[in-house]
Amino acid sequence: MSVLPQPSASTDALVLRSWPCGETSAVASYLTRDHGYVKVIAKAARRPRSRLRPLVEPGRLIGVEFGLDPRRQLQYLRTGSVHLDPLADRPSLERSAFLLGALELVDRCRPFAPQAGSPQEPVDCAELFNVCEEFVAVLSSPDCSAPDFAFFGLEWDLLRLHGLAPDLGVCAACGADMPESCGEGLWFALAEGGVLCASCGTDATGAPGARRRLGAEAWEALRILAGPGSVQEPPGWSRALRREVGALLHGFLGYHMPGYRLPAALDLLRPRKD
Ligand SMILES: [Zn+2]
Predict the structure, then answer these.
(1) pTM score, two decimals?
(2) How far apart are the CA of 178 and the centre of ligand 1, in A?
(3) Distance 201 CA to ligand 1 centre (A)
(4) What are phi and psi of 187, to 5 degrees?
(5) Are the C-beta atoms of 18 and 56 separated by less than 8 Å?
(6) Are the CB atoms for 92 and 257 separated by under 8 Å?
(7) How far is the CA of 154 from the centre of ligand 1 (A)?
(8) pLDDT at 233 over 80
(9) What is the CB neighbour count within 10 angstroms for residue 146?
(10) How far is ligand 1, taken at its centre, from the CA of residue 252, in Å?
(11) Residue 238 C-alpha from the chain's centroid
(12) 223 Cα to the center of ligand 1, angstroms
């Protein structure tokens, strides 16, 4: 009898979700750098001393080795180690909520496979992984003071990877160049998929419900989000401005992104009414 080596994969992964399985095992869903979305079974991972236990905690960035059997839906998790854990030292409620919200979003809004004959390029999972890796790195940094901002950046990147990010350079209706700063009178338009100049925005022929007036500060904020590089610390954004930007992005994602809804984890941050 010949013993062939079992094929296996060794890659980095973000733990998206995990579930108990049987008496002591766990199933975990990963976004990996090299193999896209993968589900693994971690045998006996819920035993206190299991070396697989740290590899099924959602939100962690890990290096892993798992079996690669195309006939199996669940691959066997073999070994691995933790690179980053954003929840390691007493995270704030805000940091936990935005991390869990991001995991939910990345798990739910999976890159679509293009239809036959469609010009749409498939979304590159390696690039999606890079975006998530950067987000987890920002959140894991001890001086991360704006997890909401990092989350907005992740949302913008998701839109960009799906080819849906609004073009802030031109009016989505007439194509006129947009001002670089002080965008008084501009509009954010869901149906048109971008921003509108002052005259197109007030044109009564469009769908008024799907438009929001953009304040000069919100316009500036969107331009920062759309700019290159990760945003670590927003320059003095007020709570109100953060809420405004969050609402614009959620509205836009809800309108354009298949499978999107506001992550349930963000409900933790709603002000209580008592
Ligand atoms: Zn216009």
Answers:
(1) 0.87
(2) 9
(3) 7
(4) -130, 150
(5) yes
(6) no
(7) 28
(8) no
(9) 19
(10) 19
(11) 23
(12) 18
Domains and CATH numbers, the chain: 8-84 (2.40.50.140), 93-269 (1.20.1440.120)
* Residue 174 Cα to chain centre, angstroms: 31
Assigned token pair, 137: 């790195």
Nearest to 191 by CA among 256, 103, 270, 259: 256
Distance from C-alpha of 245 to C-alpha of 107, rounded to nearest angstrom: 23
Ligand 1 centre to CA of 161 (Å) is 26
| Alpha carbon of 101 to ligand 1 centroid (Å) | 35
Task: Find the 222 Cα to ligand 1 centroid distance in Å.
Answer: 18
Ligand 1 centroid – CA 171 distance (Å): 5
- The alpha-helical segments, DSSP class H, found in the chain are 93-108, 125-140, 147-161, 198-202, 216-226, 239-256
Q: How far is the CA of 249 from the centre of ligand 1 (A)?
A: 21
Distance (Å) from CA 187 to ligand 1 centroid? 10
What is the 166 CA–ligand 1 centroid distance (Å)? 14
What b/e readout covers 61-78, taking b as 16+ CB neighbours within 10 angstroms?
bbebbbbeeeeeebbbbb
Q: What is the per-residue pLDDT across 92-148, written as a single tens digit (0 to 9) for each?
A: 899 999 999 999 999 987 765 555 555 555 567 889 999 999 999 999 988 888 888
Tokens of 236: 């003095």
Q: What's the 170 CA to ligand 1 centre distance in angstroms? A: 8
Q: What is the pLDDT of residue 273?
A: 60
